[in-house]
Design a protein that fits this description.
Layout: H1 2-10, E1 17-20, H2 29-32, H3 36-46, E2 51-53, E3 60-64, H4 68-78, E4 87-89, H5 96-99, H6 105-114, E5 119-124, E6 139-143, H7 148-157, E7 161-162, H8 177-184, E8 190-193, E9 204-207, E10 214-217, H9 223-230, E11 234-235, H10 237-240, H11 242-248, E12 266-270, H12 276-292, E13 297-301, E14 313-316, H13 323-339, E15 344-348, H14 356-366, E16 371-372
Parallel strand pairs: 1-8, 2-8, 4-6, 5-9, 10-11, 12-15, 12-16, 13-14, 13-15
Antiparallel strand pairs: 2-3, 3-7, 4-7, 5-6, 9-10
The protein binds threonylcarbamoyladenylate and magnesium ion (MG).
Threonylcarbamoyladenylate binds at residues 55, 57-58, 60, 84-87, 118, 120, 122, 134, 137, 139-141, 143, 145, 163-165, 202-203, 205, 216-217, 252-256.
């Protein structure tokens, strides 16, 4: 039975189209609106199909947010649990009134400061939004992506576009069209190849239904950036102690509770609390042990440390002083470990401030909460 289901799962339903338009990214939204490939992709969305497209954070898997039937196909293609709601993407602020109620003053300020950009806001939803999008919740998550292809696609489709990250559920998010193809070829109508994404981590998800904003998922916009605009911002307590919080708190963002970003290899995060030299020593001794047992072992290191290591695969995520580059490199590094059939991954930790918060959140999830201190 299980085997049969697996085979059915693998069966290719679509011959997935590929629209390669990364050369036109710099032409701007207006010119892209006239690009025949982009128009073809937008038409497919209008007709109820599912299309993968680049955003500034990661690739998204988009469908008409007003159609239950279209949105259902996203869940099917990803293998996503149906109680995990999707983010609705819009191309202009005017479209917001069509889909949400009650926009508090501080949300207006945040939109003004960070849209288009990697910030998702949660509002009470209007009836028109498909209940499949919101997974039965009374709220809906909305963002305006800062990517010309995404904006042109939404404009040309003429509808808000519901889109999760374009990976199979549980896998690292895609930062390049090849990652999407690897996960979803044959399962969706098409992929727009817009080159590599810039931020590399998903948007920050903020609940704006209460008196004060609450961060439900750290991401491309930092807590410090939000607070500079609206003053104190809360953080969902379920996020603060990832390793044991889930037993005490139910996360407000349903997606946060699922296994995520996981490579095939067993991953461990090594603490940097006792300093970089101690961390290096610790990583290397763990790696040596696994390698003497015959395992293939990878290290996720940084520019400052990668020379110090010996393993089957040592990847530098970038400089410890340049967390933007580190953020951009994580998912593709995890996928490289899979491609090279690594069995264990040891990853360095980062200080949990600024973008480090989102970076550590994703690494911790990929490691399933396993930290070596
Ligand atoms: O950068 C991003 O946000 C990317 C790109 C494609 O836009 N999208 C993305 O979507 O990361 P996804 O589905 O992988 O993550 C959406 C997160 C999930 O944790 C989900 O539970 C949460 O947002 N979410 C969506 N609607 C929500 C709602 N109404 N209330 C609470 N959390 C919600
Ligand atoms: Mg995702």
């Amino acid at each position: 039975m299980k085997r049969q289901q697996l085979d059915a799962d693998r069966k290719k339903k679509y011959s997935t189209k590929s629209w390669v338009i990364h050369k036109f990214v710099h032409n701007g939204v207006d010119k892209l609106l006239k690009n025949p490939q982009l128009v073809e992709a937008a038409t497919a969305i209008k007709q109820g199909e599912v299309i993968a497209f680049p955003t500034e954070t990661v690739y998204g898997l988009g469908a008409n947010a007003l159609s239950n039937k279209a949105v259902h196909k996203i869940f099917e293609a990803k293998g996503r649990p149906s109680d995990n709601p999707l983010i609705v993407h819009i191309a202009d602020v005017e479209s917001l009134d069509r889909i949400v109620d009650n926009i508090p003053g501080y949300a207006q300020l945040l939109m003004k400061a960070f849209w288009p950009g990697p910030l998702t806001l949660i509002f009470p939803k209007k009836e028109v939004v498909s209940s499949t999008v919101s997974a039965g919740l009374q709220t809906v998550a909305v963002r305006m992506p800062n990517h010309p292809i995404a904006l042109a696609l939404i404009k040309a489709a003429g509808v808000p576009v519901a889109a999760p990250s374009a990976n199979r559920s549980g896998k690292p998010s895609p930062t390049a069209a090849e990652h999407v193809k690897h996960d979803l070829d044959g399962r969706i109508a098409g992929i727009i190849d817009g080159g590599e994404t810039g931020v590399g981590l998903e948007s920050t998800v903020v609940d704006t239904t209460g008196e004060r904003p609450i961060i439900l998922r750290p991401g491309g916009i930092t807590k410090e950036q939000l607070e500079a605009i609206v003053g104190a911002v809360d953080v969902d307590p379920a996020l603060q102690n990832e390793s044991d919080a889930h037993t005490k708190y139910t996360p407000k963002s349903p997606g946060v509770k699922y296994k995520h970003y996981a490579p095939e290899a067993l991953m461990f995060l090594v603490s940097e609390a006792k300093g970089i030299q101690e961390m290096i020593r610790h990583v290397q001794s763990e790696v040596d042990m696994k390698r003497t047992e015959g395992y293939k072992v990878a290290i996720l290191a940084t520019e400052e440390t990668c020379e110090a290591y010996e393993a089957d695969l040592v990847l530098s995520l970038g400089s410890r002083n340049d967390l933007k580059t580190v953020a951009r490199s994580i998912y593709s590094a995890l996928r490289q470990c899979d491609e090279r059939n690594m069995e264990y991954i040891y990853a360095e930790s980062f200080p949990v401030t600024g973008l480090g918060e989102a970076i550590m959140n994703r690494l911790l999830k990929a490691a399933n909460g396993q930290v070596i201190t």
